[in-house]
Each structure stands twice: as structure tokens, then as C-alpha cells.
Amino acid sequence: MTSTPGSAGRTAATTPPPSEPPHRVRRFSPAERLVHRATAALMLLCVATAACLYVPGLAELVGRRGLVVTLHEWSGLLLPVPFLLGLASRAFRRDLRRLNRFGPHDRTWLRSALRRRHGPGRRPAGKFNAGQKLYAAWIAGAVLVMLGTGLLMWFTHLAPLVWRNGATFVHDWLALTIGVVLAGHIAKALADPEARRGMRTGSVERPWARREHPLWDPDRD
Amino acid sequence: MNETTQPPGPAPSDPPPPDPGTPSGPGASGDPARPPSSDPDSEGTPVGRRTVLAVLGLGAAGVAAAPWLQRGLEAFLGSVADKDPTKLTGLLPNGGGFRYYSVAASVPRRTPADYRLTVDGLVERPTEFTLGALRRLPQTRLVRDVQCVTGWRVPDTPFEGVRLADLLDAVGVRPEARAVRFTCFDGVYSESLTLDQARRSDVLVCLRMRDEPLSHAHGGPVRLYVAPMYFYKSAKWLSGISLTRDVRPGYWEERGYDIDAWVGRSNGRDDAPTV
């Protein structure tokens, strides 16, 4: 810790009262951060290889179609593995449970988000806000659909041609949608350095937690 | 920082179901600053699970309804693409047009000056053709649909070039030859045809496509064009034709594609034939 932004300096630097809670609070365990990092790496590889297979300019630049196909297939197949390994962690399972449950405060949050309203009490959120919950559930379902349709395209003898054509159709359009949603996810992270620090180091500043996730009590986590 | 593996201990009023370790202690202890319910996300509707299931269901429905959805989208995108100066619609799935596939890391460029097509193997007169020599031979123009084995199809595409049969006659095929092997100056790709297939009148050594000189991206200056077969048979960047005793599987055929790649009758597909 080098400096505390916003502090007035060293004047009258007395020992803080002992009841003061620590300034930084734990948000993600090492296991959770590892799951996120591994998933992100696989997802980026999967998206990058997809672009090289699909966008004519990139395909022309990169070539090596056989290699790119292999990388795409395996990064896609391995994408759910960090999640499955993460289930061994209690902290990860606990956060999954939180992401699953929607309370009345989430409806309030969504309503405010849709009407672009900010202000005190407008965006109530626990450890995860309603947008994060929806994103997590949607991307989980989308990855599973991509996996299923991808396997149909990969192992061509698994299903009749009509299914394969249907799988290609869904795979292509959902890939486009995932690209857009993923860009939104990354843009949200880029816009909030403290949220990024939380995922990188595991802890966040207490005022940030209180502001962004007022219903979350990190001390009881 | 506190570790997450701390004992569940005196969590004052956690609802019992999600956390089996919580003792049902005296729930009266309260935090003066906060309402007693500790974690608002420990209960509520399981919207997350329902969302996952809904996405899975929509995905399956999409696969099932794809034939109808695709037809509608193709009609719509086709009409938009005609008026789209940015060509961005070409990047959308089923947006129409050719897709660029190359199996090599990079493909060298050949100009009319340094391009050569060698014809050898079981022939009477092994010959090297320049682009000029190929252009001086009789040219044939065919307009057919292009069908890729991965599903995309481009309608009514003009191809123009020398009939492979004419080229074979020019060099003289020896009687023991049964097949033709094609190699490419990308250094990797190869293809094969039986001699009977190669002699068909709709198999060209192609110099022009869509009434323009064949561009590098489309396999220029010279590619093979096998009208009745899936487009992987139409090897790009053609540089060698060799007469052989037997058919030798080409690049994709060693990776599971059919050697006799008739459109609609191979590779487990039932596309409408292109000829």
C-alpha cells in the first residue's frame, strides 16, 4: 500500500481507534480468481480462433486452418473445466448460490438499470448485482449451447445433416451474440478499476463495496 | 484478511436451508447498524438456474427451427446486402459470399511473369505452362453454383479457363495412368481426381472467376475448378498436375473428407447438385 488517495496528509497522525474495520475487504478467494483467469484465457483463445476462422481478412492473414481449427475445438471443449474444478471450493459454491438467487432488491436494481436511474437506494445489490447475476447465468447457458452445437459440427456422424445445419446456424449466430455480450462484460470491467482490482488481488476498498454492493456484508463473508 | 474457511460459527440469523453447518443458535443477537437478515442473496427465486435452462431450451429450439429461420434470414440479409455499401452484412452468418480458407501459414504470390504450371507423371511430354501459354489455349466459360462442404453456397458464379481434358490431350496421357494429382504453390494443399472425372467437360484449369482475372484470395492466378463436386476439390493456387496410377487422397481427404466429392451425394450431405 503506497498512499491513501484523498487523505489530508500526515497532520495529527494519531493511531486510529481500534474499532476501525480494515480498509480493504476480501471479495474473491484465490480459487475463484484462478477459475476466472483460466476461463478468461480459454474464452479469449476460443474467440480469437473463431475470428480467424470466420472473418475473411483475419483468415487470410493467419491461414493455418488445420491448426486454428484444432485450437478452437480444444479451447471450447475445455472451457467448462475450470468451472467444474472450482466446484471443489466452498467460496466458489457459495458465490454460485448467490448468483442463482434473485430477491426483491434485484428487481429494483433491474428496473433502475433499464430506466438508467442512479442515486441512493436505486441500485440495491448484494455481493453481486442483478446485472452480474443475469450475465453469469446467460453466459453459462450460452457456453453449454456452443459446446453442444460445436460437438455436433465436430463429430459429423453424431447426427443427421438437418441437425448439423441447425447446429451450424445456432453456433454462428450465438457466437456473434456472445461476442457482443462479452465486449460489454469487458467494457464494464474497464470502466471500474476497483472491480478489476477485486478480481485481480481478491480485495476491494470498503467504501467501494458499500457504494456498489450496499447489501453485501464483507465482514460476514 | 480473513480467510473464507472460517467456521460458520455465530452467524446470527442465517436462514437454515443453504448452510447446513449453521447452528440454530439464539437468533436474537442483532447488529445495531444493519437489519438482521445477513445476506439478501441467500434466498429468493432461482432465476439464475432458470435462465441457464431457458438458454439451453432456446438453443435446442434454434437447432430444430433452423431450416425455417435460416430461409427467412437469408431472404432478409440478401435484400439488405444488395443495398449495403459497407459490405458488413457479408460478415454475418449466411450473409452470402465466399469464405476464405487456407491451410498454409502464408501463401506466396505468383505474378503472370513467374507463374508456372507443370504437367508431368505418366504423360508422353512433360510440359511447363506459363500463364500466357494457358491463356492462348481455347477457353471455356461455365456459370454454376458453388457449394462448400461446410454449408455455404454462392449462386451462379462464372468460371473461365482451359478444359483439363484439353490440357491432358496436349501432353498425351500414357495408357497406364488412371488418376490425376494436383499440387499447389501454397506448399501444403493437394487434391486428386480419377482420370474419368478429370476428363469431364466441366472440370477446368481456371484463369478467370466472376469475369475477372482470378485474384490471389480466390486462388489466383490459376486454380482448379471441379463444377460437380464440393468446393474443396477445386484446389486454389494450382502449380502441379501429375498423372498417377492410383488416386492419392488430398489434404482434406486425409482428414476424413470423401474423395469422390459429388455435391449432394457425399460427405453425408444432401445439398442440391451444382450441375
UniProtKB/TrEMBL annotation, chain A:
Any one GO molecular function term: electron transfer activity
Bilayer topology term: Multi-pass membrane protein
Listed InterPro entries: Cyt_b561_bac/Ni-Hgenase, Di-haem_cyt_TM, Hydrogenase_cytochrome
Residues that span the membrane, as ranges: 34-56, 76-92, 134-153, 173-191
Annotated region (Disordered), positions in chain: 1-25
Pfam family, one: Ni_hydr_CYTB
Keywords: Cell membrane, Membrane, Transmembrane, Transmembrane helix
Stretches assigned to the Cytochrome b561 bacterial/Ni-hydrogenase domain: 27-193
Location (main, coarse): membrane
GO CC entries: plasma membrane
Subcellular location: Cell membrane
GO terms classed as biological process: respiratory electron transport chain
UniProt keyword Zinc, yes or no: no
Matching PANTHER family: NI/FE-HYDROGENASE 1 B-TYPE CYTOCHROME SUBUNIT (PTHR30485), NI_FE-HYDROGENASE 1 B-TYPE CYTOCHROME SUBUNIT-RELATED (PTHR30485:SF0)
Name of the protein: Formate dehydrogenase subunit gamma
Organism in which the protein naturally occurs: Streptomyces wuyuanensis
UniProtKB/TrEMBL annotation, chain B:
Taxonomy, superkingdom: Bacteria
Ranges of biased composition (kind: Pro residues): 7-23
UniProt-annotated stretches for the region Disordered: 1-47
Domain Oxidoreductase molybdopterin-binding: 106-252
Name of the molecule in the record: DMSO/TMAO reductase YedYZ, molybdopterin-dependent catalytic subunit
